[in-house]
Amino acid sequence: MNESLGKRIVELSQRIVSNFDRGLWTELGLLTGTTEVIESYPRLLRSLDWGDPDYSGNVLGLLRHIAEESPGTFQKIERYVDKKFPEETEYISAQPAERRITFAPNVFTVPDRPVEPDLVSVMMPMSRDFSDTYAAIQRACTGVGLRCLRADDIWDDSVIVQDIFNLVFQSQIVIVDFSERNANVMYETGIAHTLGKHVVPISQSLNDVPFDLRHHRVLRYLNNTQGLRELERKLASRLRRLAGVAEESDSDVPF
Predict the structure, then answer these.
(1) How many domains does the chain have?
(2) Is the backbone of residue 193 left (phi > 0), alpha (psi -120 to 50) or beta?
(3) 199 inside domain
(4) CB-based contact 43:58 (threshold 8 Å)
(5) Can you give the pTM of this predicted structure?
(6) Element (H, E) at 219
């Protein structure tokens, strides 16, 4: 289990311990399909009813079990708790930092939408030459239970840069393709870094990666059938780690 997922489990556990009663556990089970695991988890509800000191540990253990066995269900629980008990300050970055800053952009409007843990945004040149690359990225995301979108997949605002900002804002992970040194991709990468997202760089040539970003690990790929299959495999592995999804064995990977 990676550190990011561990922190999400601890944070969610603390919010549940502070707010849940038996009725909310019942409601959560019905809405997320976890009734059986909640009711059968050792001492969870009993320790709640009796006010036992091990209740918080039981909650933590249950959430860890769900996160490891069914990451999608864990994300549903996160969304349920976020909706039921919205925090005064919304945390949109992928990884917690010791020091936090507040910013008020004057170019973009901050969307009134939550971060979606299963959403991956893709920033790349908008050219037919990259259609096969985007298809490989989509397969990699789908294979690990994530959704991916590009700016041209949505049209919520008349200003395209606002759609791009909204997409990055709502995503937990941002894939950026530096191939051909596209200026728009560079700009969008800056937005993603500022918002504290997990940024996954890919490129057909390492020479296209800006000097200031070459210390990041870049997935290099060839734009042919074999190269895109390899990109799909490596990207899926990277996404699993970032999203906290259990790694598959080589025999399970359909390549």
Answers:
(1) 2
(2) alpha
(3) yes
(4) yes
(5) 0.61
(6) strand 219-220
